[in-house]
């Protein structure tokens, strides 16, 4: 399935979460990821993410679609994270 | 149509952009909005957003879907911006 992931994570935990999410999805903006992922891999990703985040302070939202073609993406301004290579 | 909007905006401009986007969509996370919007209203929103942002530094991504039912949303952790009322 196709997934958009957005998070709002406390500063202390955000680096770890970024590295974690990049293992599963494409990083497209500061705290936004997208990509194709299986149900099994998504469950694994969420399970590990729960361990990283503080569920009383942090937020992670997933938008799931069976097919990427149902979504039309438009980028305005900077196309790609220029910091994509610094990690 | 149903729209998800995510932005990464320089600190000096982010307050203005937040206020602007909230006029059109629902604020669901730090820099994430969603909602039903017409094509005409969306064009108006993007046009004004371009005037607020620095297109060489800032980024705004729109995911558009004809129907919200094609997307399944899952929230992990904090459900709503606790700062929603401070503006």
UniProtKB/TrEMBL annotation, chains A, B:
The keyword Signal does not apply. Keywords: Antiviral defense, Endonuclease, Hydrolase, Magnesium, Metal-binding, Nuclease. Pfam families: CRISPR_Cas2 (PF09827). It comes from Runella slithyformis (strain ATCC 29530 / DSM 19594 / LMG 11500 / NCIMB 11436 / LSU 4). CRISPR (clustered regularly interspaced short palindromic repeat), is an adaptive immune system that provides protection against mobile genetic elements (viruses, transposable elements and conjugative plasmids). CRISPR clusters contain sequences complementary to antecedent mobile elements and target invading nucleic acids. CRISPR clusters are transcribed and processed into CRISPR RNA (crRNA). Functions as a ssRNA-specific endoribonuclease. Involved in the integration of spacer DNA into the CRISPR cassette. The keyword Nuclease applies. The gene is cas2. Belongs to the CRISPR-associated endoribonuclease Cas2 protein family. This is CRISPR-associated endoribonuclease Cas2. Its cofactor is Mg(2+). Homodimer, forms a heterotetramer with a Cas1 homodimer.
């Amino acid at each position: 399935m196709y997934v958009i992931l957005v998070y709002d994570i406390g500063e202390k935990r955000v680096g770890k979460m970024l590295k974690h999410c990049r293992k599963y999805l494409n990083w497209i903006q500061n705290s936004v990821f997208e990509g194709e992922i299986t149900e099994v891999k998504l469950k694994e990703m969420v399970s590990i993410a729960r361990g990283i985040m503080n569920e009383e302070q942090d937020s992670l939202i997933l938008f799931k679609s069976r097919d990427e073609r149902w979504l039309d993406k438009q980028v305005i301004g900077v196309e790609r994270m220029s910091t994509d290579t610094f990690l």
